[in-house]
Specification:
- With about 140 residues, the chain is an alpha+beta fold.
- It has one domain.
- It has 3 helices and 6 strands; from the N terminus they run H-E-E-E-E-H-H-E-E.
- Strands 1-2-3-6-5-4 form a 6-stranded antiparallel β-sheet.
- The chain is globular, with a radius of gyration of 14 Å.
- The termini are close together.
- The relative contact order is 0.26.
Length: about 140
């Protein structure tokens, strides 16, 4: 059996130079999984449950992580949170407005700890954001 836990700041630090190599989603179950190979060769997977929305952009043959952010680890300042949410909710080149009800409700729920925001800042390739009720790492 694979051990699972909630990610911590120290967990996330090990993902510098990791490579995203698999994405699995299920719209009906509202789940998403992102699998990474760490720089040391170990493999880790983030599993998201109760996914509200996600966005993954610029997936290439190689997708290298610069850093990961997670609101449940208190890693994102409010201005950065607004920038990430605008990008996450944008469906076109223009970012979503911070004044929309949907944006404000998601931001409020994230700040209250009802939802978690996960953000992958890339070195190369995929940029990703996930808003979900729960996140586990295994």
């Amino acid at each position: 059996m694979i051990a699972t836990s909630h990610p911590t700041v120290s967990n996330l630090a090990t993902f510098h130079d990791a490579e995203l190599y698999k994405v699995v989603m299920d719209r009906k179950l509202k789940t998403l999984a992102l699998a990474f190979e760490l720089a040391d060769g170990n493999k880790e997977e983030f599993s998201f449950e109760g996914v509200l929305t996600y966005k993954i952009d610029n997936i290439f043959y190689q997708n290298v992580v610069s850093r990961l952010y997670l609101t449940s680890a208190r890693m994102i300042e409010e201005g950065e949170l607004d920038r990430i949410l605008s990008w996450t909710f944008s469906r076109v080149a223009e970012p979503a407005t911070k004044d929309s009800d949907y944006f404000q409700k998601a931001k409020s729920d994230i700040l209250a700890g009802k939802l978690i925001l996960f953000y992958l800042d890339p070195s190369v390739g995929a940029q990703a954001s996930v808003i979900a009720e729960n996140i586990l790492i295994s």
